Amino acid sequence: MTNKERMLNSQLYVANDPELRKDFKHGRVLTRLFNNTTEEQMTYQKELLKKLFGKVGEHVHVEPPFHTDYGLNTTIGENFYANYDCIFIDVGKITIGNNVMFGPRVGLYTAGHPIDATVRVEGYEYGYPITIGNNVWIGGNVVVNPGVTIGNNVVVGSGSIVTHDIPDNVIAVGNPCHILREINNDDKKKWETQKQAYITEMNAE
């Protein structure tokens, strides 16, 4: 089994490997090109993102600057938005669903290093996948740790450190991140009412 195969299968691997160095350079070149674009180059930005990520939906917007290790190990669904300074460390697979929003400086960190210092300094690493469901909003400065799955219809409060899986239909906050409460029909009624008030006001002008 190659180091790349071991990396993507959550096994111990060595990053100083010709195949991985090639993939890493591919990611660095594309992120550098992307981060040097301007707001007038949105079509070019999308072209670069399609080359960078393993798979990406048509309606995706990432605000530069953005940083990643490989990009190739990240899959993103439709209708995705990431604000400034997001970081995807994708030595493990990152899977992001549809209708997902990231605040600024969200970090998805799949990488890990051995606790034992002797093994760690010899260059061994590992990575556990991160999975994010559909209809998820992650606030600014959130860190998602290796191996975490965030369910569908979840809101994660800003500054949270997500160390364990988060189930569907909840608001989660804190360090370590924990469930604050379930999202319920009262939330739906509140925001539908405010939306209708907005529509009424705009139509009256």
TrEMBL record:
PROSITE patterns assigned: HEXAPEP_TRANSFERASES (PS00101)
Keyword Lipoprotein carried by entry: no
Enzyme Commission number(s) of this protein: 2.3.1.-
A Gene Ontology molecular function term of the record: galactoside O-acetyltransferase activity
Keywords: Acyltransferase, Repeat, Transferase
Signal peptide: none
Coiled-coil positions: none
Family: Belongs to the transferase hexapeptide repeat family.
Protein name in UniProt: Acetyltransferase
